[in-house]
Amino acid sequence: MTPVPTPAPTPAPAPGLRERKKLKTRSAIRSATYELIAAQGYEATTVEQIAAAAEVSPSTVIRYFPAKEDIVLGAEYEQPLEAALRSRPADEPVLTSLRYAIKAQLGADLDDTGLRLRCRLLRDVPEVRARMTESLTDTARRLCPLLAERTGRPATDLQLRVLVTAVAQAVLEVALHWAEGGRREDLTRLVDEALDVFADGI
After folding, report:
1. For residues 80-106, b (16+ Cβ closer than 10 Å) or e, as one string?
2. Which of 194, 13, 18 is nearest to 106 (CA)?
3. How far apart are CA 15 and CA 74, in angstroms?
4. Cα separation of 76 and 82, whole Å?
5. Angstrom distances, CA of residue 186 to CA of 123, 131, 182
6. Does 1.10.10.60 match the CATH number of domain 17-66?
7. What is the largest CA-CA distance in the chain?
8. In a 3-state reduction of DSSP, which class is residue 144?
9. Lowest mean pLDDT among 43-52, 65-74, 112-121, 157-166
10. What residue spans define the domains of the chain?
11. N or C: more exposed end of the chain, with fewer CB within 10 A?
């Protein structure tokens, strides 16, 4: 199957002042976390150390990120994915729309210096991998109503739910495969390979 080209990410509306402050705080916490983990490892990095490095209180860290795993993984994928899906033609097959949306998000993330660290931690830290599985399942459930609108199916449709959840788990397997291979392969090509399985089988 011919790979679908990676689309440009859908531009997001400019955030207001309050939202910009929140994003700045989240970014500071995440950057501090990445630096600490790179220097001393995941297990040795504490919320108190992260707070000190980010110049915020431990309670602020917890308010923005309830668990350390959430800092590493991030939780800002639902809105970009929804925007990318809404930008696709209404009569486009669900799998094609999902392929575009996922690759658009990955295209935005490839310049993120934390991406390689996140994938390495997915491979090496069971808690991070478990949280990622939970997060992807939640994201898939939230996308089902949007895809139900596009297909005329009910939001509770079992086949739709199975497809979206399976695609989400496929993305996790892609990330693990990429990390296990030393993060040298083309990540968007790996996404195409994984999603081709749903269309063509093995």
Report:
1. bbbbbbeebeeeeebeebbbbbbbbbb
2. 194
3. 18
4. 11
5. 18, 25, 11
6. yes
7. 51
8. helix
9. 112-121
10. 17-66, 73-200
11. C
Instruction: Tell me the DSSP string of 1-27.
Output: -PPPPPPPPPPPPPP-HHHHHHHHHHH
Across residues 98-122, what is the average pLDDT?
78
Give the tokens for residue 80. 């970009």
Please name the fold of domain 73-200.
Answer: Tetracycline Repressor; domain 2 (1.10.357)
Given 3-state DSSP classes, what are the helix, strand and coil percentages for the chain, each rounded to the nearest 5?
A: 70, 0, 30
**Residue found under tokens 């968007």:** 188
- 3-class secondary structure per residue, 145-179: HHHHHHHCCCCCCHHHHHHHHHHHHHHHHHHHHHH
Place of tokens 């910009």: 20
pLDDT higher than threshold 70 for residue 202: no
Cβ atoms 107, 199 nearer than 8 A: no
- Distance, CA of 69 to CA of 127 (rounded, Å): 7
DSSP, collapsed to helix, strand or coil, labels residue 46 as: coil
Least confident of 46-50, 72-76, 163-167: 72-76
Place of tokens 């739709």: 160
Closest CA to 118 of 23, 33, 200, 58: 33
Q: Show Cβ contacts of residue 196 under 8 Å, excluding neighbours closer than 6 positions.
A: 1
